[in-house]
Write a structure and sequence with these properties.
alpha/beta, Rossmann fold, 7-stranded mixed beta sheet, globular, disordered N terminus
Length: 437
């Protein structure tokens, strides 16, 4: 499976990188709205947390919130050291850019483990990044928590076997699964009156191979609902010409477009589809359509494009660490950066919530076995919802809620992501009805 090739096509590049942002992130998050402070304490040791994420390359939008969240966490822990085993513990966060490349993700994780001697690893954003980092931690006996990748590509993609088969010792994951996005997307397709024929846009990467798998992916599940997927086959990440896929979808009258692609690839595909006269009734695209920057790059072509929504200001959850609500956290991001909220904000924040809870429960910074034992039984609330590793669906995985949304032209921003489908989590309110393209 080919990892994404770093690309700049159509993406708004981050400018707050290591020298300008990640070396001094505390200044970015010093005034995070809604934080409840508990007062500072004297230092009695340190917890080293490694954090790996794609801040440049094709997956850079996933890392857009890192400067804000990591800065806010550094500020928070400086004023609120953890109480671990009766001692006050300072928290050090070491951030590394995976550059949207699987090989580099594994390399920087290895460096954090062997050279920087981190006590615990955190990693976010797509199987391309979470899997190689998790594998390094599993091989070296380092507690690791990952997120922002469906659990199947993370668990099965690394050799895990559901149903009592192989699981992992050192690596734990929280996010939703393919079964959740399959249910949400079908609900959106039905509401749009889009018929039963879908075009599948699945690249040759871990996500594309998992979503398009004829036995474990979308085809057998949506087939039970009467849907058929036209699948032209896997294409290389970074493909420039999508004429073959578009021709297949047009010939099949695929009024549903389904896919999981990196932002630059969808931008190319969607502009070519418009030029070649392919206009489905609804499009539900994972990964690429999560971010305001991708939609803005499409101009008028972005209206009513659909995607899954894992976190938003409307989610009714509160941080177990800072006391911020989802809306307060999103508003604090906008106030600090001047940018529109983006979904990874909540999950990056939740990684630090989970780390703090696990180490505190373990009672020791240096006892790695105690930390993974705490993760194995950890149940905690978070700003993205309940995180519970005791309820499955497989060992090492905790599921979080999922709803569906569409991008609509906004008042303060070019587009707003509106929740339009919540069959799996009615506690997350809808902000509108599904509308066809």
């Amino acid at each position: 499976m080919n990892p994404p090739t770093p690309s700049t096509g159509g993406l708004r590049r981050r400018t707050l990188l290591n020298a300008a942002g990640l070396a001094g992130l505390a200044a970015v998050g010093g005034c995070s709205g809604g934080i409840k402070r508990s007062g500072s304490a004297s230092s009695g040791g340190a917890l080293k947390l490694g954090y790996v994420t794609p801040q440049t390359g094709a997956l850079a939008p996933f890392g857009e919130a890192d400067s804000f969240v990591v800065g806010a966490m550094r500020d928070w822990f400086a004023k609120n050291p953890l109480s671990v085993g009766g001692k006050s513990v300072q928290v050090e966060i070491l951030v590394r850019d995976a550059q949207s490349d699987s090989k580099r993700a594994g390399t920087v994780a290895s460096d954090l483990i062997l050279s920087d001697k981190v006590d615990m690893m955190l990693v976010s954003s797509t199987p391309d990044i979470t899997n190689p980092v998790s594998d390094q931690c599993e091989a070296n006996g380092v507690p690791c928590v990952s997120t922002v990748a469906p659990w199947q590509p993370w668990f099965i993609g690394r050799g895990g076997v559901p149903g009592g088969g192989k699981s992992f010792t050192w690596t734990y994951h929280f996010f939703w699964g393919l079964e959740d996005v399959e249910a949400v997307y079908q609900d959106m397709w039905a509401a749009a009156g889009a018929g039963k024929q879908a075009g599948g846009l699945f690249p040759n990467d871990p996500d594309g191979n998992a979503w398009g798998d004829s036995k474990l992916g979308f085809p057998p599940v949506v087939g039970k609902g009467g849907y058929a997927i036209v699948d032209p086959g896997r294409f290389a990440v970074g493909t420039q010409d999508y004429s073959a896929q578009i021709a297949r979808f047009k010939a099949a009258n695929a009024h549903i477009l389904l896919g999981v692609v990196v932002p630059p690839d969808f931008t190319n595909f969607w502009k070519q589809a418009a030029q070649q006269g392919y206009r489905p009734r609804i499009a539900t695209i994972a990964k690429a359509l999560l971010f305001p920057s991708t939609i803005e790059a499409l101009g008028a072509l972005g209206n009513n494009l659909g995607t899954e929504v894992w976190w938003s200001p409307a989610h009714p959850y509160t941080s177990s660490l800072t006391g911020q609500t989802a809306k307060q956290l999103a508003d604090a991001f906008t106030a600090a950066t001047g940018k529109q909220w983006t979904q990874p904000i909540g999950f990056v924040h939740a990684l630090f919530e989970v780390a703090a809870k696990a180490v505190t429960a373990a009672g020791s910074v240096g006892d790695r076995k105690a930390i993974v034992a705490a993760l194995k039984t950890l149940k905690t609330d978070s700003v993205v919802g309940p995180v519970d590793w005791t309820s499955g669906p497989v060992p090492n995985v905790a599921k979080t809620p999922l709803v569906g949304g569409q991008w609509r032209k906004g008042a303060q921003h070019p587009y707003d992501l509106v929740v339009v489908s919540n069959p799996l989590k009615t506690a997350v309110p809808v902000g509108g009805a599904v509308q066809p393209l």
